Amino acid sequence: MQAVLIAGALVLIAVGAVIFTLVTPWWFTPQASNWGEIDSTLLLTIWITGIAFVLVNLFVAYTVIRYRHREGQRAEYLPEHKRLEWGLIALTTVGVIVLLAPGLFVYSRFITPPEEAMLVEVVGEQWRWTFRFPGPDGVLGEADPQRISFENPFGIDPDDPYAQDDVLVLGNELHLPVGVPVKLQLRAKDVLHSFYVPQFRVKMDTVPGMVTHLWFTPTEVGRYEIACAEYCGIGHHTMRGVVVVEDEESFRQWLATQPIFGSPAGRSE
Amino acid sequence: MSMEKRVAVPKEAHAQEQAHDHHEPQSFWTKYVFSQDHKVIAIQFTVTALFVGFVGLVMSWGMRLQLGFPGLFEFLNPNTYYQAVTQHGMIMIIYVLTAILLGGFGNFLIPLMLGARDMAFPFVNMLSYWVYLLSVIVLLASFFVPGGPTGAGWTLYPPQAILPGTPGSDGGIVLMLLSLVIFIAAATMGGLNYVTTVLQLRTRGMTLMRMPLAIWGIFVASILALLAFPALFVGGVMLLLDKVAGTSFFMPTIVQFGQKLGYEGGNPLLFQHLFWYFGHPEVYIVALPAFGLISELVSIHARKPIFGYRMMIWAILAIGVISFVVWAHHMFVSGMNPYFGFFFATTTLIIAIPTAIKVYNWVLTLWRGNLHLNTPMLFAIGFISTFVIGGLTGLFLGNVVVDIPLSDTYFVVAHFHLVMGVATILAIFGGLYHWFPKATGRMLNETLGKAHFWVTFLGSYAIFFPMHYMGFLGVPRRYFDFEAFDFIPESMAGLEAFITVAALITGAAQFLFVVNVIWSLAKGPKAEPNPWRATTLEWQTPTTPPPHGNWGPTLPAVYRWAYDYSVPGAPDDFIPQTVPVAAPVAAAPAPGTVTDGGGGDGASDGSEPTKRDGE
Q1: pTM of the predicted protein model
Q2: CB-closest option in B311, B335, B466 to A205
């Protein structure tokens, strides 16, 4: 009785897992960046681990039915089987290599932003996001948390010539041009946060006292939510932002409406 | 394996001396409360840990009620929610799993399975329990200070853990850190004891390569604990200093809510490295003893030698070593040097190989066995299934680039609960059902036990399996609510409610165990000395439950490995370790007597377990 139940449960789990995976309404969001390769490595991992999961559960279900205790039955005395053990080790090693090699290959790209990528700064604080563009000179002005004040929320060095044309985005909304690689430079003012856009498949913590980096190319026009993905206190779940991906022209128009650090409008913010 | 050379003759004379001490008459207080008997201490650890586990369970209900039915319960707000999340995690990992597996099973099994009268340092052992209890009291006291317990998340990441904006960032976090420091003192006393006992007090003939795998798991886990907990200790003390003494170990220049704080120059990542240098081995501190228990259960109840005994030991040792060089896979998106990703992804996926060996060997032990599907065996099978899914999802999170979209989503929640929560708890319950007769002299009720198993096993899948898909969707963890997220479909609200109902039922089912224990202690059938017909020494004690000192006047001697089940030609389907090889096999429960000066000095060959060593 217990044998049928436990074998049935294991078969149900194995088969149910496959069916659930096929029909689930909860699946990847539509991919909206260049990181289709990340989805490929993830799918590869789902396949390989899924097969292993189903096989082990079905095998246990089989042993439970086939070798359940019955009157007069005796187990086989089988302490070792060298060839079987080494065969399984070899098989597992192959599986690990098949998962790891493409993973590391994609990762090496993930940490190598293209030269021409557009630089944008992201600053996390409890519990909102702000952003800074480097302006026409393409260089962000020096910033130091010691200098942060109400008038100078980014802590920018007012004497730095590179800082004068920096564009400050103080809302929770970041606009990006479609098809242009973006390199984010991430900072935090207070505690850890994490810049995360599910549709871009990217995530990176912002750390006070440090600068971290992330790059991607938005490939689909649209509005995407930023969710903070590193617990940052009681407002963590409200720390949302928006990335608006649009054509180059709309992006330029939007950027032109944002205050510039060197201008009176930028200082008084 | 140079350790084997040191086996020689265990300290027979010393053990005999102890025996005399132990037969002194004792008062109620020294016998049951301030006891130095490892078995009483084991029960104290287990009962205390199960009680704290009840607190942890209630915390999880709190958070599930909010997620399943947001806004319905007034006592749930971001403050209480994050406190519940934090306390649930911390309590379950440290104060329940670690305490019950090392303090409970370690204490009970090490001397009994090795044929010792007690731990090497019984007084320190007793102290270990009382210091553990103190850490629990300090932890629970934090619920009653102004601001309540800390809600910093169980990882206690600074700067947030000690700053306003996080629940319990005053008294709560201070007591939490103090409690951890006290716990580590207790764990160190225990760990030194377990390691010393295994190395020094094995009875005659009990070579390292004849030890049951339960002891191997507990032994290596204790070594890991001794090496890993100090990192948490220093991290905790430094964070405490940052909080109360104004130091800046982990605190850089911070501008919070427009105010500049007095910190400067510290590094938050340093804490993460210290935390996970402890935190990842901690996974194996919990998992290795669970592996060991499962190896015993599977072999005994399948009436078959554990498959690949030597490979199992090598796997345990390999896991133990590698577990110290994988920690930063918890930090792939932390902002650490991105090149570390290559190294830590590789080491993490390598550790999957010895772990997979263990799974294969359990499954191959079942294969061609004679499976008695009693409650302990059901829990063991449940362990295998949940450990496999939890282990396989580790391959997602360990492979750095696959981790990036999944990190800090519900996929992670599903992964670590199945592998470290559910699987380990199933192993613990399997162990409790299995060794309860030896500890108490009574059998537990099988019907209640099976009901407990079925609700727990199926309930756990119902709770955690769908969370993998929430993770694929990208739902972030540690969120009080998911209002107004466009990328999350409305159907997820129904799923959250379903998970909450499953969690309430599964949690409530744990009381079946409590009822079973209370009922069986009073009315359960008396246990025979060896009800499962097992080979290991704890089942060969002259009386059940064994008295203080365990063995009567003479220590048992060991003549064979721990897994002589269904040996061809033997009349019974098990041969206790105490049965000499030459004398053909009467499965007598009486302990073998010490006949000569032989001690094991070489590895027993697993494939020729009847070989008589060192005689």
Answers
A1: 0.92
A2: B335
